[in-house]
Amino acid sequence: MNRDRLRRLGFxxxxxxxxxxxxxxxxxxxxxxxxxxxFTAWREMLAYANDTRRMISIVNRAIPLYISAxxxxxxxxxxxxxxxxxxxxxxxxxxxxxxxxxxxxPGPIHxxxxxxxxxxxxxxxxxxxxxxxxxxxxxxxxxxxxxxAIVTTGLLAYLLGNYLRDRSETQxxxxxxxxxxxxxxxxxxxxxxxxxxxxxxANLQGFLVIAILLGVAFYVVVSRTRFGYDLRASGVNPxxxxxxxxxxxxxxxxxxxxxxxxxxxxxxxxxxGFFGRYHQDFPTGLGFAGIAVAxxxxxxxxxxxxxxxxxxxxxxxxxILDLRDIPKEIIDILQATVLLSVVVSYxxxxxxxxxxxxxxxxxxxxxxxxxxAAAALSEEGDR
Amino acid sequence: xxxxxxxxxxxxxxxxxxxANDDVDLVVRTGEVHAIVGENGAGKSTLMKILYGMQAxxxxxxLVDGAEVSFRSPKDAIAAGIGMVHQHFMLADNLTVxxxxxxxxxxxxxxxxxxxxxxxxxxxxxxxxxxxxxxxTLVEHLGVGERQRVExxxxxxxxxxxxxxxxxxxxxxxxxxxxxxxxLAELKSQGVTVIFISHKLDEVLxxxxxxxxxRAGRTVGTTEPAATTARELAEMxxxxxxxxxxxxGSTVTETVExxxxxxxxxxTGRTVIDGVSMRVRRGEVxxxxxxxxxxxxxxxxxxxxxxxxxxxxxxxxxxxxxQASTRWRRNQGVGxxxxxxxxxxxxxxxxxxxxxxxxxxxxxxxxRGPWVNRRGARxxxxxxxxxxxxxxxxxxxxxxxxxxxxxxxxxxGREMAAEPKLLVAGHPTRGIDVGAQAAVWxxxxxxxxxxxxxxxxxxxxxxxxxxxxxxxxMYRGRIVAELDPQTVTPQELGSxxxxxxx
Lengths: 383, 502
What we know:
The structure holds two protein chains of two kinds.
Chain A: H1 2-33, H2 38-49, H3 52-76, H4 85-102, H5 107-136, H6 140-162, H7 188-193, H8 207-224, H9 226-236, H10 238-243, H11 248-264, H12 268-275, H13 286-296, H14 301-323, H15 330-364, H16 371-382
Helix pairs in contact in A: 1-15, 2-14, 3-8, 3-11, 3-13, 3-14, 4-5, 4-6, 4-11, 4-13, 5-6, 5-11, 8-9, 13-14
Chain B: E1 6-15, E2 18-28, E3 33-37, H1 44-51, E4 59-64, E5 67-69, H2 74-79, E6 82-85, H3 97-102, E7 108-109, E8 112-113, H4 115-128, H5 144-157, E9 162-166, H6 174-189, E10 193-198, H7 201-207, E11 210-215, E12 218-223, H8 230-238, E13 256-267, E14 270-281, E15 285-289, H9 296-304, E16 311-316, E17 319-320, H10 326-331, E18 334-337, H11 341-344, H12 352-356, E19 367-368, E20 371-372, H13 374-387, H14 404-417, E21 422-426, H15 434-449, E22 453-457, H16 461-467, E23 470-475, E24 478-483, H17 490-497
Parallel strand pairs in B: 3-10, 3-11, 6-9, 9-10, 15-22, 15-23, 18-21, 21-22
Antiparallel strand pairs in B: 1-2, 1-4, 4-5, 7-8, 11-12, 13-14, 13-16, 16-17, 19-20, 23-24
Helix pairs in contact in B: 13-14, 14-15
């Protein structure tokens, strides 16, 4: 049993690890071809990351990527492709920032309210795609892409410019600042308590705790609850799930609502822990990056955590490359190659594993193939 | 004397821990239809994979037309004139017959497909072998029997003179089987050698010139239809007597478990089910006979709540459940053995214990409140595997690793273990071997005697007659006859099924 599990874990790791190794190889070739020494580049990046301040930066960057991946991965579990995390989190961040700045509540409740608003807005926006899919047959990829377009090309600027703007500020377009009770404390003090010196100006975002809790909740809901079972069954075989009593339309809507609620939290670590307001330069692209993180992490909460940290490391360490006159676009090449090769390697590993499982099952049930059948027959005859 | 088309001598193939083939001998004469019969897992498929170059034998020799060959891939086999038609068709629906046939071997004119020469060749092949089919029809518009003809044409187009057909009749309705057999006779008269894998013994007796029986990876013997009977063949296959599907004494009670009242289903202006009223009482097996496509599938869907009827009522234990959800019905004790087990009954990549809880995910021991009870599910799955003879190394093995017969036994097991009130079973023994079939029949009878109401939809007349207390015939969405299985003859049934007696 234990060996069996170990073997399965090995298989699970085989695909992402080999995909990553392949991507490193390709990027090294690209570096080498452009006249740079790949070994120097990788060594510089690793050396750069080996520093408390930058490690904190890596984790801070990984938090929104991880939550974005959870949102995408949850929908993936029932074969729904929520490309709309991008629009969902941006709209949610704007609305949550505006609502948060307009009320004054005691600390934890204030933060909670902001999170609830963010989740509600994200869920609502994703829910539109869910309802369209379930009741009008509109493919969720089309619907979420269009919903993204609505948010990013017009809705955000319209709402911010006309209704939610902080008019006292004439230079930049932003919401009112969150009061202190609506901010989230950093984890610097707990870090200091366990003996890690946090350098001046670095802050490990408190939202990390929530991200970890979300990861645990993701695992529990997907793997340990009846709802999660129905969700996975619908993803594996929607017809069989239907016959087993899963209501497919309800399932689609629920899944999109949950995925959207998670998406709503993507911008929260930066809103609550860094900016304290929504403004023109609020980070974009986290929703699309989350798709990549989910893909590499195989929609598994632990795998996605590793892959979010990896992406966080790459974007943090990319900064050193410029200083060393190495084109930092190499990071884009690396990330793109990881994505392409991970898709291929999953398929290869899937076939490999399937073949080995069939063989193992045959081996384990070997011996007199027809004997039990004959026994059933003679039992029949005796009757 | 002409050498045999195919001769296999002492073929052995071992997988780690399994001997799939152990000293198989086979002689197929040129221009004959040679049937290979055996239970699931007897080694038929492995043997054909070896002959078709998909696997290399560990021992033994293969001779084609008297010359020893060694195939490294199906390409080599095709070059030697061997072609295979798989049970599951491999056709592109959105291409025409012509395009499918030439796919991968297109005659070119410049860079373009030379349609004229391809068409000429296909028409010529079709005429020579009596398999006329319009080369310009899209495959998606073809029926199952026609698709199979396209597959055969594909193989012939590649120059095959030796044709391997893997359970070709499993997917066909009776008329299509007749057409296939006519085609095979035509092929034979043109000198094509056909190797026909099946476990439908009456068909084998009808079409084959020679029959080789394989059991547990060994050749049991070769015989001819004239010299044997289905019963003898079955005995050779399983090594003991063939089960007789007879009901011993009626267990039918007066309590009606399922009642349909004027159920009608209209789909895009077509009446698929037309005013069906029927009752299934506790302890009764009601069989529904009919050629596929006469409304049986939709009837099952309506009973399970997968589809809502246009009008009419469905009652379970006297309660109107027409509007009830599938989940509610399943939790009320409606068991379901789907006709297409892989599509409607299994989560192939998921472990067995997750498959065993499919359709029972709300019920102890599979779940507790909102939680999945993994330990309970595993224990119950192991119990099902033991009680229903599902041969598996464990409950964490994915369902796709099991053979078809074992998958079916798992489905039957999980439904029976839940002790349903009503069991809706579609083709419960389709594609499984004689031994497993007997076991399923036994289980159904036992459950019936304990008061289970069974609605049995099957294409296997022997199964229907053997198991049913009441036999209904469906034709064009109506129940056209209610027959007594004790006295009905296959001829009588057949005439109702085809509408001849209506």
